[in-house]
Amino acid sequence: xxxxxxxxxxxxxxxxxxxxxxxxxxxxxxxxxxxxxxxxxxxxxxxxxxxxxxxxxxxxxxxxxxxxxxxxxxxxxxxxxxxxxxxxxxxxxxxxxxxxxxxxxxxxxxxxxxxxxxxxxxxxxxxxxxxxxxxxxxxxxxxxxxxxxxxxxxxxxxxxxxxxxxxxxxxxxxxxxxxxxxxxxxxxxxxxxxxxxxxxxxxxxxxxxxxxxxxxxxxxxxxxxxxxxxxxxxxxxxxxxxxxxxxxxxxxxxxxxxxxxxxxxxxxxxxxxxxxxxxxxxxxxxxxxxxxxxxxxxxxxxxxxxxxxxxxxxxxxxxxxxxxxxxxxxxxxxxxxxxxxxxxxxxxxxxxxxxxxxxxxxxxxxxxxxxxxxxxxxxxxxxxxxxxxxxxxxxxxxxxxxxxxxxxxxxxxxxxxxxxxxxxxxxxxxxxxxxx
Length: 436
Ligand code: SAH
Ligand code: SF4
Ligand code: F3S
Fold this sequence. Notes:
Layout: E1 2-7, H1 11-26, E2 30-32, E3 40-45, H2 50-68, E4 74-79, H3 80-85, H4 87-91, E5 96-98, H5 106-114, E6 119-121, E7 142-146, E8 148-149, H6 160-164, E9 168-169, H7 172-184, E10 189-193, H8 210-217, E11 225-229, H9 238-246, E12 253-255, H10 263-268, H11 275-288, E13 293-300, H12 307-320, E14 324-329, H13 337-341, H14 348-371, E15 377-385, E16 391-394, E17 400-404, E18 413-421, E19 426-433
Parallel strand pairs: 1-2, 1-3, 3-4, 4-5, 5-6, 7-10, 10-11, 12-13, 13-14, 17-19
Antiparallel strand pairs: 8-9, 15-16, 15-18, 16-17, 18-19
Helix pairs in contact: 8-9, 12-14
This protein binds S-adenosyl-L-homocysteine, iron/sulfur cluster and FE3-S4 cluster (F3S).
């Protein structure tokens, strides 16, 4: 039986799809990379914004048509949408629903669905996912490694604590066993994942922390780069900053969502820091980690956000100069404090105006920061080939670099001299392959 996964949302979902695919493959299913010819389609869904939710509902509608035409046997829903909508998805036509903390049970759930049962399975079985759980990895040289599940923060706008549950760190030994297996498979780069990845270890004994995990992981000779995503501002410790500064394998990159530059809005969001704290954190990191890249997320048009609040955000963006900024328009989410108690009162046109203003500003900042790269020689781990036949990869600051070359394998480390900059990727010429 052929199974196709369509994955939405964040890297956690990408990682969960790899786990579910691995388990299904071990149970004799064939995993296919397109809808055509699939017997079962599983949508691994995201509900972080209304748009994300609408997207999988529209796909579900198209799949139901195919099913009626006899081109498809079963439709399953996994991921955060399952936890938010549960039984409702069965009423919308899905055959089975499996929660984001239930991925280990995918084979049982699918079996029951094949036997004709409509299944909604949302039990928390996340502790049974470990280093020995099979995973069907999509990349040969890079691996996503989830180290902490869930979130305890309850930002008032955010649905994630309701869909992913509370924070639960994986035992460090188990993470290290997973890395040992990855090394055997030829993996060179790993990204540690968590909604608040820097909260890793807070619920474990022996003072285990993300910093200690990075140190341990860097002892595997064949691991060349270690990334971590996403950091909550107040969970970043000096210990972590020191490890990033001093460990040559730690990527010089922090993704630290700020969400707003206005203290009043930050309070309404239940983000537990003020703008000054954030600004001094950035200073602390920059003074310790040479050439560090700092990126962020911002929500525009949060309830009651005034022009003045928005200007505070603009000011913060100008001061920090992020390497990358993900901007989102506030979207009320079912079940959250903000959707229950705060009126979504910033007009659509105002939200778009504020979004565009920040987009334009960020573009200028990107150009300015990227121009410093001109003429520089950087070490790139090759990730793939573009439509135009050029190679691309990243440097240790998470910059995407595109260059011409031949006979380079994915995962290879090369030296590239930057010759052209844009507000997006950088372009360069291949200087040498490692060891030549
Ligand atoms: N744990 C991370 C982010 C997780 S969600 C953190 O604390 O920052 C990813 C991003 O989606 C958030 O940073 C936020 O910018 C955006 N987001 C979350 N809920 C949203 C909502 N209701 N409306 C608009 N954007 C939202
Ligand atoms: Fe959502 Fe806030 Fe948790 Fe991030 S920290 S996942 S924004 S509740
Ligand atoms: Fe979306 Fe869930 Fe990730 S809501 S962003 S898939 S944690």
